[in-house]
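Run folding on both entries below.
>entry_1
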Amino acid sequence: MHPAYSVIFFTTASGAGYGLLALLGILNIGNYLPHDKWFFLIALVLSLSLITAGLLSSTFHLGHPERAWRALTQWQTSWLSREGVAAMFTYVPACVMVLGWIIEEQTDGVYMVMGLLAAIGSFVTVYCTSMIYASLKAIPAWTLSLVPVLYLFLSIASGSLVLVTLLCAFSIEILELSKFCLLVLIITMFLKIKYWKMLDLMPTNTNIETATGLGSIGKVNVLEKPHTSENYLQQEMGYQIARKHAEKLRKIVLITLFILPIIFIGLSFLFPTNAFLLTIAAVATATIGISIERWLFFAEAKHVVMSYYES
């Protein structure tokens, strides 16, 4: 599949935003967040900004962005519509939390409940996003069982990195949350490696014989391509990346998205005076890594329609 940069930005930015919002809602229930006016306000506004920027960028890939609102009406059958509905729902409790803190400077009581609802809405929205791809049977690479799991873990991992950085910026203790962040990064790394192995071992059940329905008569040879020149399907569905390049990019993802952030967060334990700079470095490298990981997610996926163009 052709990697659309607007969709890559959407899944990266909104994923981090929803992960951050979910952690704020959950940690607030246990009273683990500092009672600092500016920390809570900045964290909430940052999460909503990432979410909004991501959602807006996703409309750039549409042929008619002005009609995007119509997708919300198909929630009974469409995961894209369900994602939109869940995203709109999540804004309500999140905005109530922001207003509650600005007006009353309170995070308990009803605002604690709003935080829980925002966290639930965040997870549901990310899951719906993952199912937009996982439900596409025509792209076998996306139907693997680990796709929704990875979307959720990548969201939590990126959100926890941002939260740790914010805590450091306000000189707040980060030890416990950093341990959680390291654990999530390690689990996500092994899940991603497992996904790549599953992808490499995935059998090819579609070929020119099954695509044309002529397999019962024997080997099918294409005398002439379906089109005399490259068309839209070949551009969007037939994007190819050489295996050697894919392997190099996978290694870069492992280093930038997982290994370096794990090292930087670990060093913040040993050098607390430099913790803020180290966490910023972790977020910077992870941003590069997750952008490449999202690009690979699309570039390595093959639509079965390309079987018509195979000789």
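>entry_2
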Amino acid sequence: MKKFLALALAALMVMSIAPVTASAEGLEGKDINGGEPVKIGFVSMSTLGITNELYELAKVDAVQQYPNVEIVTFDSQYDVVKQNQYIQECITQGFSAIITEPLDTEALNASILDAEAAGVAVISLNTGASATHSLHLQGTDYGMGYFGGQYLSEALGGEGKIMVLDFPTAMMASARQYEGFMDAVAEFGPNVEIVDHQNLDGVTTDIAQTTCADVLTKLNNEVDAIYAVTDDIALGAVQALKAAGIPDGQVKVWGGTGYSYAFEGIRDGSWYGTSWCDTYAQVTTAIEFALYFAASGVNSVKAGYTSTPTVYQSMFPVTKDNVDTIQPLSRWDQTASAG
């Protein structure tokens, strides 16, 4: 299966970038191995949360052999106005590529088209944008939610009370975990009740813990499971459960992404499971493509794309049944040195 996925991904990449070889003749890129400075903009949703520790580590690793390449991070603080401003700033300052995780699939379209028209390749992560741009790397957000809904519903025997800790409202237009989660609950949990659905103010463990504690109090701790869209949010839920004196495993917690502490929680019984995907690999891949676009001088306009090439990230559910098969390859144990 792993070999098949690797071959499929390689084939998809070739098909996605194929127009470049036919259209890039005569284009001039920049020397990423020396010479003039090359800047790549990383326009984030926010720099809060443990995920950004791994982002920073990936940024350092991906360009360490390119002394003239600089990755500049912009903290949009969950504000699409700031995201647009930062993209325009990258254009004005002559950046060679922009990596962004849009808060909304439509809100950045004008700025993305401006960048591509100016010869700046735009690479989007996860949420994406409907405007045609150079590359989209899609995390399996719907699949992550679907597995969470399926596994929790089955663990509850098709009935019970579930609390949902979700992304901030500003991200709901583009994040599809909840959609996948609810589809699975409808299929596998005919008598499952969503007793509370919270859109958090930010994707951080502290915010999740405070919110979860408040909801537990409101519900008199009458919850059978908690679905969290990311592991840092799930960690906040686990901490809130411990603070409330609820025994490990009594409330089944499911997260998403696959951080090292999630695996430890699955082993010790404080978590039920998570949906694993390799964030480090996704970000380093985005940077490698940004370097390719910078070196080749190619982007969607110059290559004549009529739609955005998309590559999907692999993902699979992790529970106590398979957690010991996970090898420490995604570098979460090294995040303390990031940044």
